[in-house]
Amino acid sequence: MSSVGCAIPGMQLLSEEHCRLIHSSSLEILRRTGVEVYGSEALKLLRQTGGALIRDHHVHLEPALVEWAVAQAPSRIVLCERSSDRPSARLEGREVVFGTGSDCLTYLDPRSGVRRPFTHADVEDCIRVVDALDELQFCMSMGIPRELGESLYRVQFAAMLRNTRKPIVFVCNDRTDCEAIVAMASAAAGGIASLRNSPSILLYSEPSSPLRHSRTAVEKLLYMAEQSLPVVHSPAPVQGGTAPVTLSGALAMANAEVLSGLVLHQLKRKGSPFVYGCGMHQLDMKTLVSVYTSPEFLLARAATAEMGRFYGLPTWGYAGDANSCVVDQQAASEATFSILTALLAGSNLTHDVGYLESGKTTSPEMMILCNEIITMARTFMRGISFEPEMLALDIIHEVGSHGNFLTSQHTLHHYRKLWMPDLFTRVDGETWTTRGTTMSESIRDRTLAVLEEHRPPELSQEADDEIKYILQASAEQARKPGCEGQKENHN
């Protein structure tokens, strides 16, 4: 009997025609409406092309220049573990890896159950939770410790380096921050050449919707291109606020923002690694909350993944987040919806696991819950195999109509491959009444155990000393008069 392989779950939202329509609409926005670009280096690069009409900071791009930039960027990025060439996240095709979000102001403390401002110690705790969870394959900072002041992003990054071996997606305020962070990552990797060859970091940057690239965002973007290190330059337009309220209109505008950022990036150094991403949010007109896991939000995520593949670029996604303010039934429902959508859509680098309150609060307990949901959803995504061994016709014939399959070696072998929950319960009601726990209790117990017991591999003493030196030099530089830069908001 011939084999027909496996039936794999999947989804297709946009046809080739839809993708071409969004692309041509974005080209028309860039030609007709244009974008604002700030920063003398970026404007100089654009003038040299002959493919841009520039009036002061307002730039109109010719379609040929945009399509040239798309053709230059690589279709595959591999992120590696800290101090290693071992791959941790392959960003290509429909491969999906999950990680946390960044820069929440509020922490849901698993020890007390209290929502409160983030501290530096909380960030370190959260990073160690990421390091302990198999399904979280990269790390973001998760919280803003307000007590750190001007050195926030550099100290934050050093804490990530020291507390996880996994790749880091970082945010920072300006190019000076970016330079210091790359220097620290280089120290851990054994030099800038090793870091470029086996990148363990990726910059998250944003244009400002609608249709504006700020000076600090552009400077960071160009610096990462100069270093040939990966970046995602992802707009976060809010439908009905900073973007059209309609999904297709918001997608066309956001795509124009991404493509214009890619032009700048590739003009600086063609072939530098660039991740395609845009985080369109829906504005709830009743509450003025920028909504996360709504049906419209997840349709936008699927469309973003498909537009990225249309361009042959790695993609940026969102999952494991919730609008709920606590880890409850709503949070679990929204997380499951978003995680399964990410896997079906094939969003490569999928962040925000652990977010609550529409991106304002981070919860380690939410990370623990999502880790379980991801393992369940990944098993679903394996689909159904129709290989002869799986069809089991010989075993069916052997057992016939009078036996059972419980004692079969075939059952023993393949049962071990089935998904077995770690947190979810499968006992009967009587057993659970006698010695069961609620899901909330199980999650809290597991979270506290990880916080108390998990210790990541340490950095080498040489690398740690170099990081201390960079932080000290940065702090001294920040204390000099005239070094206070204009701050940007990172959402």
Structural class: alpha/beta
Strand order of the largest sheet: 3-4-2-13
What name is given to the CATH topology? TIM Barrel
Share in helix: 40-55%
Largest sheet: 4 strands, mixed
Give the CA-based shape.
globular
CATH superfamily: Trimethylamine methyltransferase-like
The first-level CATH class name? Alpha Beta
Distinct helical segment count: 18
Q: Tell me the total number of β-strands.
A: 23
Spatial gap, N to C terminus = 55 Å
Question: Which keywords apply here?
Answer:
four-stranded parallel β-sheet; TIM Barrel; alpha/beta; 18 helices; globular; 491 residues
Describe the structure concisely for a colleague.
By secondary structure, the chain is of the alpha/beta class. It contains 18 helices and 23 strands. 46% of the residues lie in helices and 14% in strands.
Q: What topology does this entry show?
A:
Elements: E1 6-7, H1 16-33, E2 35-37, H2 40-49, E3 52-55, E4 58-61, H3 63-72, E5 77-80, E6 87-91, E7 97-100, E8 106-108, E9 115-117, H4 120-132, E10 136-138, H5 152-163, E11 168-170, H6 175-189, H7 192-197, E12 201-205, E13 212-213, H8 215-226, E14 231-233, E15 238-239, H9 247-268, E16 274-275, E17 281-283, E18 290-291, H10 295-311, E19 316-318, H11 329-345, E20 349-353, E21 355-356, E22 361-362, H12 364-381, E23 384-385, H13 388-391, H14 393-399, H15 409-415, H16 429-435, H17 439-453, H18 461-478
Parallel strand pairs: 2-13, 7-10, 7-20, 8-22, 11-12, 12-14, 14-16, 15-17, 19-20
Antiparallel strand pairs: 1-23, 2-4, 3-4, 5-6, 8-9, 17-18, 21-22
